[in-house]
Amino acid sequence: MSANRSFPNIILTWFSQAGAIIVIVSFFLPWVEVRAMVKKISGSGFSFAHDEMLLWMVPLFALIIFVLFQFLRKKESLLGLKIGVIIFATLGILMMIMTYLSIEQKLSSFLVKQITSYQIKIGFPGIIVGFMISLISTIFIKPIRMVGPVDDESVEE
């Protein structure tokens, strides 16, 4: 028989992959809304990535996490999966923190001259939350135990 996959492991696996999808979707959602006199301008990760090519690493990290689940989960390489997700989710979070500090610095320097206010929108925290969901749920996935044919005693366990 195939691996005995516990219900919590299945849920955690789905959460981890959903976190990666949240990151990819959030990359294209608005990150920042800037008010300049009478005009409102929104910027997404996609629009910022035209100037900062390194930002393309954010959805790439999420895609790698998603692909890791598709390949390593079937090979039952839980340690490799956990290490990969920890590395890429942590790099994604660190990149978003550096991006936030960079945006904050750039907007603050323009604030007095042209920009009256700015606000962080849903896409930016969505990316951090997505990486956190992938990271935390992957850490709690337990090793899969191989079992023989299902009988009444193993069902009760």
Task: Characterise the protein shown here.
- There is one protein chain.
- By secondary structure, this protein is α+β, with helices and mostly antiparallel strands.
- The protein is built from 6 helices and 5 strands, in the order βαββαααβαβα.
- The strands form 2 sheets. A 3-stranded antiparallel β-sheet has the order 3-2-4. It has a two-stranded antiparallel sheet with strand order 1-5.
- The protein is elongated.
- The two termini are 17 Å apart.
- The mean pLDDT is 81.
Query: Unreliable stretches, pLDDT < 50, 5 or more residues?
Result: none
Structural class: alpha+beta
Write down the overall geometry: elongated
The number of distinct β-strands equals: 5
Largest sheet: number of strands, sense, barrel closure: 3 strands, antiparallel
Count of runs of 4 or more consecutive helical residues: 6
Provide the CATH top-level class: Mainly Alpha
Secondary-structure element string:
EHEEHHHEHEH
**CATH A-level architecture:** Up-down Bundle
Q: Taking Cα atoms only, what radius of gyration do you get, to the nearest Å? A: 20 Å
Here the CATH topology equals Butyryl-CoA Dehydrogenase, subunit A, domain 3
Q: Provide the domain count.
A: 1
Mean model confidence by pLDDT: 81
Helix content: 55-70%
- Note the gap between the termini: 17 Å
Widest sheet, order of strands: 3-2-4
Strand content is 5-15%
